[in-house]
Amino acid sequence: MPFPILQIPFDVRSEIISLLRPNEIVTASFSSKNFKRLIKKQYQRPSKLKFDVHIGYKGLIGNCQGIVLSAEHISELSEKAHEIICTNGYKRGFSSKFPVLYFENRVMGTKMIIDYVTDLFGTCIDELYVDRNGIWAIDWINSRQSKPLACLFLVKADNGDPIADEEAEYVLSEGQWINCDNLMNVDATVFAVHNSRLTDSELNAFLRHWRSGGSPRLEVLDMNFEREVLVPAWFDPELEIVETDEVRRDGSEMEIQGGFSIQRMDGVNATIVCDLGQFCMVVWHSDGH
Amino acid sequence: MSSTEQGTSSAAPAEPTTAPESAAAPEVPESFYYVHGKDKVVHKVSAGALQHSALIHGMISNLGYTEEQAKANPFPFENIDGDILQMVVDWCNQHKGKPTPPEDTNLPKQKEKLFDLVLAVNYLEIKELLTYCCKQVAMMVKGKSPEEIREIWMIPTDAEDEAAEKEAKKRAGKEAAGETAAAAGDAK
């Protein structure tokens, strides 16, 4: 039985819309341009609503409740063609929980879903997960929102990527994926790198850069390495890194016990914890992060 | 004018059934009020049950009616269908003096009545029941595609919206032209 939602009072409609999950809000917004405008006006956005973007062979945007919108390459489309709606410059399908948009150009598609969701909810992107193909998104996202990305996760390309180019595989296998320049230039507060192939001398170069005031917003650098051996012996003596038995915790639940202490020129301290194949650096900003 | 009591269809008002109380609890006389909808069927409802409605509760507080005065002056809700008012009264009675649970299984299941129920509950300012109704409306579109949502919530398509907008502009133009002609006629 249909329910004429446009005929009910503003406040009631606003309450109904605000009860929807983010993926349902996005789905409903595709029902008409006018209804999308109405959602933008009437949705009472929770203050903690944040979105994450995952860029691999698909572009996905979502939050802790799940994906809200996806951008896929047009080559993924063939089997579902009967359910597809052709609309302004792209084709649209539905995956049972969220709409899927199909594009010839994956970068353009990913940009479009980010624009769409951030405009609909009037919010920005909080976390970004990218493989080598999505590096462009770091600067692009940071340049289009006033609040920089809170967390950045660099991940290995998905083996299931049907159109992964050979060059990407080559770059990964040669260990040039995340190099020292990437590490120094990404202005993130939380930076996680998996399966890194950075060398000891590159890590020392990064620490020298941080010590002299580089990457000032960095709060956590969390890396794991393909190689298993990672021992404190590689610390450059000029960095004046000293072993510590301190127990420190930040404003949230993070607690660090022991490890190594390094001090920036301006007096800010950081603790480095190394284990087999692991490197974690936590910066103790004066505001408690 | 016929009357019902707490959802029953008896013609004459009778004493309401009250929840069993412990023997030690002091007997507090309960006051009753009377409401009717579009069908003029009068419902006798306790003040405790009516507390759910901010609108009626406010009216009761302001009027200070005696039992006789209340009986002689049922609150008229001419904009609410009789069966909808019956649903509302039943819900208020079922939840009288009880904390409202997060999910309500006593909500009317007839989806065709949901629209009228939402309007009535919003008018009567019954916050908890309105929240339940809103949840039910939100549940209607769970797992649905944009096209299915458009059908369920009766949202016009972009083409329909554009046609309606054109029609409204045409009508406004005609009305403006008519007014100009009438003003010119008056001036002559």
UniProtKB/TrEMBL annotation, chain A:
InterPro entries reported for this sequence: F-box_dom (IPR001810), F-box_Sdz-33 (IPR012885)
Highest taxon of the lineage: Eukaryota
Domain F-box residue range list: 2-49
Protein name: F-box domain-containing protein
UniProtKB/TrEMBL annotation, chain B:
Feature: compositional bias, Low complexity: 8-25, 178-188
InterPro entries: SKP1, SKP1-like, SKP1-like_dim_sf, SKP1/BTB/POZ_sf, Skp1_comp_dimer, Skp1_comp_POZ
A family per Pfam: Skp1_POZ
Pathway the protein contributes to: Protein modification; protein ubiquitination
GO biological process assignments: protein ubiquitination; ubiquitin-dependent protein catabolic process
Domain of life: Eukaryota
Residue ranges with Basic and acidic residues bias: 165-177
Domain SKP1 component POZ: 38-96
Keywords: Ubl conjugation pathway
SKP1 component dimerisation domain sequence ranges: 127-170
Signal peptide: none
Residue span of region Disordered: 1-25, 160-188
Biological function: Probable essential component of SCF (SKP1-CUL1-F-box protein) E3 ubiquitin-protein ligase complexes, which mediate the ubiquitination and subsequent proteasomal degradation of target proteins. Regulates cell proliferation during embryonic and larval development.
Entry similarity comment: Belongs to the SKP1 family.
Descriptive protein name: Skp1-related protein
Source organism of this protein record: Caenorhabditis nigoni
Phylogenetic placement of the source organism: Eukaryota, Metazoa, Ecdysozoa, Nematoda, Chromadorea
